[in-house]
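[scheduler] slot 2 assigned
[scheduler] job type: sequence-to-structure, two independent chains
[scheduler] chain ordering preserved from manifest
[runner] begin chain α
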Amino acid sequence: MALKVAIVGLPNVGKSTLFNALTKTAAAQAANYPFCTIEPNTGDVAVPEARLNALAEIAGSKEIIPARITFVDVAGLVRGASKGEGLGNQFLANIRDCDAVAFVARCFVDDDITHVEDRIDPIADLEIIETELMLADMESLERRRPQLEKRAKGGDKESALTLKLVDLALAQLNAGKPARTAEVSKEDAKAWHMLQLLTALPALYVSNVEEGSADKGNDLSDKVAARAAKDNANSVVISAQIESEIAVLDDEEQREFLETLGLEEPGLNRLIREAYKLLGLQTYFTVGPKEARAWTINVGDTAPQAAGVIHTDFEKGFIRAETIAFDDFVALRGEAKAREAGKLRAEGKSYVVKDGDVMNFLFN
């Protein structure tokens, strides 16, 4: 399952610094001037998963293959971007094919780093970005509406449905609300997704704080968290500067550095977990001597759907799944003892996969 998260924000809020830390590369040039990111940088990131290491150790797996998530570092938006200000709205298209948007808000004060609006106000920053995305959505919908209305009047049922959803989205946007706040039925979910609305994408507000506030945040990040709750979004506190410093350290050095700061884990781990939570995702595992591997599926997926993530033929020819809960696999030190103890279950097509399940599929 390919997952992409767009990192957006005003210039100089720490987007590229965060991206560099996420990908542990210098692919995105982090500099103290607006628009240093011109082309969208993309980076594949391994999803932190301690359970995978435990499984590999028990099974003697030669290779560990974590799940992956792609981050897209989009150039800094400015007020008026939807009308061509700054670098224009060409970058809005880079967001459309993503699964979620991470809004980075500057929640630190540093006179050495300029702010494009000459003030530190994360809520105002978020409102500028959201407004530009909303304006871009409105322009897109209003451009499509006349043709849809014409076809709907001619009896085209698909156009009538799309027109209904377009009007629903425009009602939300005209009321100053992002499209994600609209109530859409399950039956209309697919057609709603096809509208490709920027403000319909799940949103994660990332408060970029100074080093001393990396554990609990500060007054500015508290405001961002409150705004996220209001906007039907998730939020997380992170210090991009700390993350960039520990990105180049090995695991032991990272642990020692984080301990000196009173932190239990890198903030990036929390960020990725929040992204998974936001998108309603979970993990299951396949384990053997050759490899231990993590697979990403939707919460609520059945065993055949989980098998289909490995290969579509697995889903089409699904017979059953041999399943062991993660805790049982670890406690009994592997598949053989789990089978003896009756903890290995044969599950059919209706089985809803649980997070952490260790699975083996039988198929035609």
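[runner] end chain α
[runner] begin chain β
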Amino acid sequence: MSNWPVAEEEQPRRRAPWGVLALVLLTGLALVRSGSGGFDSGPPQPASAAAADRRAPDPAGRKGVRPLPFSPVERVRIPAIRVDAPVTEVGLDAAGRVDAPPSEEANLAGWFTGAASPGERGTAVVVGHVDNARGPAVFYGLGTLRNGQHVEIRRADGKAAVFRVYGVEVFAKSRFPGRKVYRSHGTPELRLITCGGRFSKRDGYDANVVAFARLVSTR
């Protein structure tokens, strides 16, 4: 997979090139189930009706929502799936892979600091475990999100960035479409990512669930 540069207006001082980001998330987003197989049905998977709609109008552009400046992230709220969780910063581990939040902290998400902060121009990335040894974790219900539902990100500057979901898809980790998932559309976007697909004790989950969302308001 080849790299491509970040646009100048996206302030690359804190950004990884999208090609690198796609590669490390493909090979290293290890949100792997570590339990004993107590939940036989597994986490919910996205319905085909929730597939990302590339033809959907851009709410941010239509409504004139101005991008926010950079700010660290404090909390993520997704009312539709009863998520209200603190957010920690995650970067790259020693092997060059995107770190996940500590697995023992079930109700904790991670903001990847190598991408945009939520509300900035560009694509922000927030990851979370689907489960851990004790049961379902913060993004267990991510696959049930539907188009039109909202995600609120509380930032350290006191602002809240509100995003509207326009698609939820599941991608095999072996064929993860990095450009499709992480590319910037020139407006503030958000990707929420967890594990999904089939699970095996040897390999963990074989896919990632990805929710696509666009900024629709700030407050």
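[runner] end chain β
[qc] chain β: The radius of gyration is 16 Å.
[scheduler] slot 2 released
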